[in-house]
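Question (not urgent): is this output format expected?
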Amino acid sequence: MTINDIWNGDSLTVELEGRLDTLSSPELNSHLAKYYTSITDLTIDMGKLEYMSSAGLRVILIAQKAMQDKGGVLIRHANKLIMEVFNVTGFGDILRFEE
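Got this back:
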């Protein structure tokens, strides 16, 4: 998986490319954890993400909890298969989404 950061002041957009699974989720978790105290907004752009496993969902949940007092996490450009995973697991009700 490739992680690309785009900064706009204190707002961070993290673009993901490839697969967010058991192998890559620890990397994303460590990457995001560095920024929780210093950012005001977190957007995760999944436009180039091909697949997300339950391990990836766990990282998104950790991010949501860390950013809860700041408005949570915005998920952008999730494909239909990934949106189905969010909806089936109930994450569709606790996250914000944008196409």
